[in-house]
TrEMBL record:
Organism: Paraburkholderia tropica
Domain Peptidase S9 prolyl oligopeptidase catalytic: from-to ranges: 215-384
Top-level taxon: Bacteria
Signal peptide bounds: none
Lineage start: Bacteria, Pseudomonadati, Pseudomonadota, Betaproteobacteria, Burkholderiales
Annotated InterPro entries: AB_hydrolase_fold, FrsA_esterase, Peptidase_S9_cat
Protein name: Prolyl oligopeptidase family protein
Amino acid sequence: MFQYFPTNYVWSLSTMIALTHGGNIGEVDAMCAPLRDAALAGDDPGTVAFYEAWKAGADQLSALADDDLARGHTLSAGEKYARAGLYYGIAERMQAHGFEARLAIYQRSLEQFERGRTLGRENCVRVDIPYGDTHLAALYVRAEGLQAGQRAPIVVVMNGLDSTKEMLQKSVMGTMFARRGLSALFVDQPGTGEALRLQELPAVHNTEVWAAPIVDWLEAHEEVDPQRIGALGVSLGGYYCPRAVAFEPRFACGAVWGANHDWRAVQHVRLKREGENPVPHYWKHVQWVFGAKDQDDFFTKAEHMHLNGVLDRIRVPFLVTHGENDRQIPLKYAHETFDQLTNSPKKDLFVFTAREGGVEHSSLDNPLNAGNRIADWLAEQLGGTLA
């Protein structure tokens, strides 16, 4: 993986997310160059400096978009607002829970993403899915070429520990499904995005409780084929997705971009400072995500986060992928997930190597080849197109 900060994986990971999710290398370099010395201090110190640099870059880009808008150049404005939304989101992602400006910059990120979608005429609309007495926010991307009265297969994309629906929609997934005749739904499920930040819905281990209402909503959607609903989990979605597919039989297939078979065990390893963390201030972050009052309470909740004894319930095609050099989640967990899919009628394991790229966690080092291979597999199962 390209490490802008050679001694700091966590900071470099955020930088790489920006570069592979719609960011511009010149803008990213301008924001990161003053931070090289701060990055040497480790993951947690200096994140306020990171915030200030990335917020300043996003503010400048937003001002340029305002100028475009004043001239009536809405397409140019939309592109800039969208990148500004990404940079605000990266700045927010790096802060500890309780950082005073965190909610404000997250809301600013949402606003700029929305302006980018509307002014840029993107194939993407925000939708709200009923969930108990509230809702789950999602982004709906329509299959290309869908005619009035037609129904298309759809892929439900599930966040990881620290990703958001906007971030994933700006990745290669924002277009690669639609081009193959598949619609896509990017969801902020409990513990992520709006569900966590605006509605205080923590993550839960029994992911079927939120997956079922999503499927209910899709079955009623006039553009969705209810018999062809697939699921894809990214990063910690490598736990959420298999669990959802195991207990929600209406999914026609499932796939994971990064296996996460025993996240419970990974936490004990991280406590020993082995392997890499995805975000700074890691223990504060996971306690916030799971609504835990302290670290002991978090470990009690995390005890349920494994797939042993679950995967034999899956009776639909399932794809497991992993990068061979994943420094966050060991490759062995991909093999454990694959081996336990004993009742899947078609199971496949793709390990991304140096030959095709995408060897790091969820292929963040090079998502293009890996992402297209996953999209091809899903299109094959759901009746999309590969040509």
